[in-house]
Amino acid sequence: MKKAPLVFGFIVLSITPCAWAGDDVALSAKQAQALGITTASLPSKQSGEVSGLPAQVVIPPNQLFVISTPLPAMVEQILVGVGDSVKKGQPIARLQSPALAEAQRGLLQASVQSQLAKENLARDEALWKDGIIAESRFLATKGLALEAQAALSERKQMLHLAGMSDAAIAQLQSGNNLSSLLTMTAPIDGVVLEKSASAGQRLDAAVPMFQIAKLNPLALEIQAPLAYTRDLKIGATVTVPVYAASGRLTAIGRSLSGTNQTILLRAMIQQGSENLRPGQFVEASISTSANSGAQWNIPNSAIARIAGKTVVFVETPQGFHAQTINVLNEGAQNSVISGELVGDEKIAVRGISTLKSSLMGIGGGE
């Protein structure tokens, strides 16, 4: 218990010779070790970059499709599940729909009426040319033929919306075989993200059944403080280092969010998108313009603020030099800085408070 004052007295005495002048602290290696000051080399110099930005992986809007029931129907069979890969045109569900049979009957009726109207038009055209009937009768017949053709086109379009192909419609017209079986197919090559129907379920028209998306490329929605966007340009490289994914910046928002006062950035990820999942939260890095200079990513423990200036303590043969820096991106653990640094310096990462006190003359000698 009596030795504690002696140890404390030794530390105080060791601080006393630490003279300070300007931005330099004179300190020997033995004194630095006794005061618990630890140094580390600057990390590799990196080109202009804003890193550690929170982002969410999203699906580009033009790559997401919702498949709904075109007609009231009962689900007979579900052919795919969530997470399955599908090809364009692949059957994904089969439904039984009396409304489909009714629509097919309407098509056949419209087809017969259109054919009859065409024959009447051909007959009346010949009679009109021979002067047997008046032109008004010919024009009336022509109008009826046009109406019948329009009705047939409307019925075909209804069956197209119900999922029938041109070949199936042509086969229906030639064979007159009505069917209530409605086959749902995938609109794109993609992955099933959601399935909201099950076998035996009765559905009304326009009820969503599946969500299918193309997952390559994917997009990022990035939240960035306004100050970080001044050096960003459309087309800048965007990376997600942890997942080895990269792409390009496609949009810079023009308005601030109301809650956290950040700017929304959008990026398209072309490389490594298979390593990401829609809805996933990640940290993104964005390259800045070439005139932004070199930058370093250092621990926050190495940064000190003195008299309105932000500094790091660079090791010198005589002790340490307080080098002014700019903090470009401050994260929870590390920050990105720039300044007049060569890149081969060693900086103090522990014991910063002691160096700061010495620089300010606190605890130093007269």
**N→C terminal distance:** 31 Å
What global shape is seen? elongated
Task: Enumerate the spans where pLDDT stays under 50 for 5 or more consecutive residues.
Answer: 1-21
| Percent of residues in beta strands | 35-45%
- Main beta sheet: strand number and arrangement? 7 strands, antiparallel
- CATH topology-level fold name of the domain at 17-46 and 294-359: conserved putative lor/sdh protein from methanococcus maripaludis s2 fold
Look at the helices and sheets and give the structural class.
alpha+beta
Our count of helices gives: 6
Helix content: 25-40%
Under the CATH scheme, which class of the domain at 17-46 and 294-359? Mainly Beta
H/E series: HEEHEEEEEEHHHEEEEEEEEEEEEEEEH
Please state the second-level CATH architecture of the domain at 17-46 and 294-359. Beta Barrel
Give the mean pLDDT.
86
Radius of gyration: 37 Å
Number of strands: 23
Tell me the layout of helices and strands.
Blueprint: H1 3-15, E1 20-21, E2 24-26, H2 29-34, E3 38-41, E4 49-58, E5 64-68, E6 73-78, E7 85-86, E8 91-96, H3 98-129, H4 135-161, H5 166-175, E9 181-185, E10 190-195, E11 202-203, E12 208-213, E13 218-225, E14 237-240, E15 245-256, E16 262-271, E17 281-287, E18 296-299, E19 304-306, E20 309-316, E21 319-330, E22 334-339, E23 346-350, H6 352-359
Antiparallel strand pairs: 1-2, 2-21, 3-23, 4-13, 4-17, 5-12, 6-8, 6-11, 7-10, 8-9, 10-12, 13-16, 14-15, 14-17, 15-16, 18-22, 19-20, 20-21, 21-22
Model description:
This protein is of the alpha+beta class. Among the domains are: 17-46 and 294-359, conserved putative lor/sdh protein from methanococcus maripaludis s2 fold (Beta Barrel); 51-59 and 215-291, Efflux pump adaptor protein, beta barrel domain (Elongation Factor Tu (Ef-tu), domain 3, Beta Barrel); 103-170, Orthogonal Bundle (Helix Hairpins). Helices cover 26% and strands 37% of the residues. It has helices at 3-15, 29-34, 98-129, 135-161, 166-175, 352-359, and strands at 20-21, 24-26, 38-41, 49-58, 64-68, 73-78, 85-86, 91-96, 181-185, 190-195, 202-203, 208-213, 218-225, 237-240, 245-256, 262-271, 281-287, 296-299, 304-306, 309-316, 319-330, 334-339, 346-350. The strands form 5 sheets. Strands 1, 2, 18, 19, 20, 21 and 22 form a 7-stranded antiparallel beta sheet that branches. Strands 4-13-16-15-14-17 form a 6-stranded antiparallel beta barrel. The protein has a 4-stranded antiparallel beta sheet with strand order 5-12-10-7, with no helix packed on it. Helix 3 (98-129) runs antiparallel to helix 4 (135-161). The longest helix has 32 residues, at 98-129. The radius of gyration is 37 Å and the shape is elongated. 27% of the residues are buried. Mean pLDDT is 86; it is low at 1-21.
